[in-house]
Each structure stands twice: as structure tokens, then as C-alpha cells.
Amino acid sequence: MTCQEAIALLADYLEAELGAALVADLEQHLRGCAPCVAYLNTYRKTRELGAEVGRVEMPAEMRERLRRLLLQGLQKGAPPVDN
Amino acid sequence: MDSTSDDALLARLARGEASAVETLMERYAGRCYRLAFGVVRNAADAEEIVQDVFLNILRKHASFEGRAALGSWIYRITVNTALNKRRGKRNELETPLEDYLPAFKADGHREGDRAVLVADWSQSPDHELAAAEIRRLVQEGIELLAPPYRAILVMRDVEELSNEETAEALGETVAAVKSRLHRARMALREYLTRRLGAGGPA
Fold first, then answer.
1. Distance CA B196, CA B9 (A)
2. Residues B107-124: tens digit of each pLDDT
3. Per CATH, the architecture of B97-197 is what?
4. Which of A74, B47, B62, B169 has the highest count of CB atoms within 10 angstroms of its CB?
């Protein structure tokens, strides 16, 4: 397996979606390839960091504005459906 | 999400029950905001999108009952609204993704300086960068990605939707979602490596 082939498999590898034979090939490649090990580790870390940074909360005052807007909409009754 | 309880929720909205608004928001506002914000990257635009989506739910609740799952409809309309909003702002500079993908030699080995290729900042305490500084770099990296890639990153890696659910929301194939997700992560990884890998942020 080449580095190019190994890197193409990383997403599926991390999700345990690869067949046993491909996993064995990939892991064999990783045992002999420091750049691909570094790539795998930093790829995995990137996924974690992206997830952490993406976990934003809706600010409380925004939530309050949304609540008011929806309650108003509810009181007016549902406007005509236009589809 | 339990579609039975969504049906009950929609019925309560149809009856005009104020408490249903609370439940609706509790269940979906956070997810809708995270996805919208993840694509447009600013709070004011994300708020407009969330408001649009939720007013739409009030308007169209009758058409969901017993049909599509409310959760997947919300993801679909949120991501489409967010991508449309960004389409009006094309003047922003988006770096070609290709500049951040790994390069290979003809024999399939990586191209590049070996010190960079083996740089592993994933557990390195070397830079001792403040968490806030790392967050900033990650945000910068995400902003380099074109909006459709950001959308997939949020849906898959933040919201932890499956490839299938993400594909359905975007009207794409599963293969396209998987390929874009991988490219997005690789590009973000490369950006972080360039900023962190060679001995700390430039």
C-alpha cells in the first residue's frame, strides 16, 4: 500500500468501516511509515478540534428573541401555507 | 429523534399551544443554530437563518405531520438557507482546497520536506498553546473552507449525523459527502499543521 492509498482510507478507518483485509494492509503500512502515522494522528486530532470548536451554543438573548418571535407567530395563527 | 413525539409536538403547535414553542426550541434550536453558524460563521446571519427556519415550521407544520421526520427537514432547510445566504457573499476570498491537500509523488509517497511530513502536533505539549489560541486557529482554518465543506464538517463531526443523513439533507450522494468530508478534514489538518507543526504558530 502506498501513502496515497493509505491516506485515502483514513476516514473509513477511523469509523471502523474498512474490511479486515484493508485494515491489515493499512496497519502494516502504518508500522513502516512515520509520515502516515503523523498524518493519521493529526487527522484524528483535527476532527476532534473541529468538533469542539463547532459546538457553539445559541446565545441566551438570541434564544429569547426567537421565543418571542415564535409566540407572536403562534398568536397570529398560522399564516396561509403557500406551497 | 423520536418521530412520534415530533408528531405530537406538531399537533400541539397546530392547536396554538405556547408550551409547544418551548419544546420545539429545546429540541431543535441549538442544532439549527450550530449548523447555520458553522456555515455562515457569524452570529447575526445565523440568527436570521434560525428565525426563518422556525417561522417556516410554524407556517408549514401541517405538511410535516406523519411525513418526513421533522429533524431531517430542519437540517435540510437550515443548510440550504445558510448556503444560499453565503452565495450572495462570494466576494470573500476562499482558498482553493487543493492548496491544502496532501501532494504525492508518482510512486505514491508523500511529496514534501520530511520534517514537515513527520510533524505530529496531535499530542505535543511543545507549543503549550492556550486553548483559546488553538480555537482561533481552527476557526481560521474552517473559514478557509468553502461553505458546502463547512456544512458537511458540522453535520458529520459536530452533530454526528451519519453520511446517509448528511447526504439526504444536502441532496448529495453518500459518496460525495464522504469525499468532501475527507477533503475538508485534510485541508483543515494541513492548515493546522502549517501553523502548529513546524514549531508553533507563525
1. 47
2. 998 888 888 888 888 876
3. Orthogonal Bundle (1.10)
4. B169
Task: Compute the distance between CA of residue B168 and CA of residue B28 in angstroms, rounded to an integer.
Answer: 18
Contacts of B178 in chain A (CB under 8 A): 11-12
Average pLDDT along chain B: 87
> By the 8 A CB rule, do B169 and B179 touch?
no
A66 touches B: beta carbon within 8 Å:
yes
Name the nearest CA neighbour of B60 among B20, B4, B10, B22.
B10
User: What is the tally of structural domains in chain A?
Assistant: 1
Q: Do B110 and A42 touch (CB under 8 A)?
A: no
Does some domain include residue A54? Answer: yes
ipTM: 0.89
Instruction: Tell me the average pLDDT across B173-178.
Output: 96
Q: Are B168 and B76 in contact (CB under 8 A)?
A: yes
Q: Which residues contact B175 (CB under 8 A, 6 or more apart)?
A: none
At a CB cut-off of 8 Å and minimum separation 6, what does B153 contact?
A50, A54, B38, B142, B145, B181, B184, B185, B188
B129 CB-near residues (< 8 Å, 6+ apart): B196, B200, B201
CATH fold for the domain made of B3-87: Rna Polymerase Sigma Factor; Chain: A (1.10.1740)
B132 touches chain A (CB under 8 A): no
